[in-house]
Design a protein that fits this description.
Mean pLDDT: 77
Number of strands: 20
Radius of gyration: 33 Å
Strand order of the largest sheet: 1-2
Helix content: 25-40%
Low-confidence stretches: 1-36, 336-354, 367-393
Structural class: alpha+beta
Strand content: 5-15%
Oligomer: single chain
Distance between the termini: 50 Å
Length: about 400
């Protein structure tokens, strides 16, 4: 919060003031006591004469020092009568009231957008000029606001000063903590009128609206594909670049998103956090639990437009439609070793390329020991556990 809204503390001690009666003010840049003549000369030049005993910062007037000291005491004596939010300065309360009145007296000359304060207008203008005056000394990234730089620096320091009292999770900003706490309270203040769905964060509501409007403003310059969010576009770009920044510490396999890495790591840990409440079967992802539940309800929401057959998940429907189109996108390089029409000619297409080669090696071995056509069963004895790629197993 730029203005630091919160609870007011009506008791303020003025003992921190320097330059009050009976004391000689010290000057911040002098580092020690000055003579009255030096102090008077500096006052005439308009230099700082009032110094905060808490942090050493100095001010030209006592009133400025009093206002500053409220940062240390937490005092917020100016309260909004409409929402109860309180502020350190009357000017901050005046700007805040414009949120309730809708008044936006400061307008951008280029786009006409209005703002409640001149400070916000100045920051907005930097979007047009491209000015980013606040630069990170560690990585060179620049920002339009000093507060954004301050938050960014915590990425380097690892500082997360805002901790949730309920679960102990910590955050870089107070706003992130506030949004997180809604998970515990169940509060979803941002609701979409058309479908009634609620959201914890305003940005999530905006993204959801695009699912109704079909708007996809973020376009890939390489292939032309569009996305509803910039984060989806950033992930998509990794398919072109081949970048896989998230690597598994167990096996070294890398992924384009952190969420895919988390799901993959459950293979090593054996964790299956999504449990069916009917049969208690566990799954690595919520998606496969959703698909599994349809086996209990017999729900088949994915229908083939050609024959009307229903399926529990979209991927199975995609495979089925190749029956109608005749599409065979997966070519097996060992298929020439198999008798045409044999059972194994389609089994190999369910395997990864590495396992496909291994499977056909087993087929060859089985032919040596058992003729395939006379006794096809013994080959199943060679199948290793987990050879098939199936999340539902």
């Amino acid at each position: 919060d730029f203005w630091g809204a919160g609870e007011a503390n009506p008791m303020v001690s003025l003992s921190f003031l320097q330059g009050s009666e009976g004391e000689k003010p010290t000057l911040a840049h002098g580092g020690g006591q000055r003579s009255e003549l030096e102090v008077r000369e500096q006052l005439q030049r308009g230099e700082n004469s009032h110094r905060c005993r808490e942090c050493g910062k100095s001010f030209t007037s006592k009133s400025s020092l009093v206002t500053h000291h409220r940062i240390h005491t937490g005092e917020r004596p100016y309260e909004c009568l409409q929402c109860g939010k309180s502020f350190r300065e009357s000017s901050a309360l005046k700007v805040h009231r414009r949120i309730h009145t809708g008044e936006r007296p400061y307008r951008c000359g280029q786009c006409g957008k209005g703002f409640t304060s001149n400070t916000e207008l100045t920051i907005h203008r930097r979007r047009h000029t491209g000015e980013r005056p606040y630069e990170c000394p560690q990585c060179g990234k620049s920002f339009t606001r000093s507060s954004h730089l301050m938050v960014h620096l915590r990425c380097h320091t690892g500082e997360r000063p805002y901790e949730c009292p309920q679960c102990g999770k910590s955050f870089r900003t107070s706003s992130c903590l506030m949004e997180h706490r809604r998970i515990h309270t169940g509060e979803k203040p941002y609701e979409y009128g058309r479908c009634g769905k609620g959201f914890v964060v305003r940005s999530h509501l905006k993204i959801h609206q695009r699912s109704h409007t079909g708007e996809k403003p973020f376009r890939c310059q390489l292939c032309g594909k569009s996305f509803s969010t910039s984060s989806y576009l950033n992930v998509h770009r990794r398919y072109h670049s081949g970048e896989r920044p998230y690597e598994c510490g167990e096996c070294g396999r890398s992924f384009i998103t952190r969420s895919l890495l988390v799901v993959h790591q459950r293979i090593h840990t054996g964790e299956r956090p999504y449990v069916c409440d009917v049969c208690r079967k566990g799954f690595r992802t919520s998606y496969w639990l959703l698909v599994h539940r349809r086996s209990h309800t017999d729900e088949k929401p994915f229908r083939c437009p050609d024959c009307g057959k229903g399926f529990r998940d979209n991927s199975t429907l995609t495979v089925h439609r190749r029956v109608h189109t005749g599409e065979r996108p997966y070519l097996c390089c060992w298929k020439r070793h198999l008798a045409e029409g044999s059972t194994s000619s389609w089994i190999c297409h369910l395997l990864t390329p590495e396992k496909c080669h291994f499977f056909h090696l087993l087929v060859v071995l089985s032919h040596i020991r058992y003729p395939w056509r006379s006794s096809p069963t013994p080959i199943h004895r060679f199948w290793p556990t987990g050879i098939f790629r199936s999340e539902t197993e």
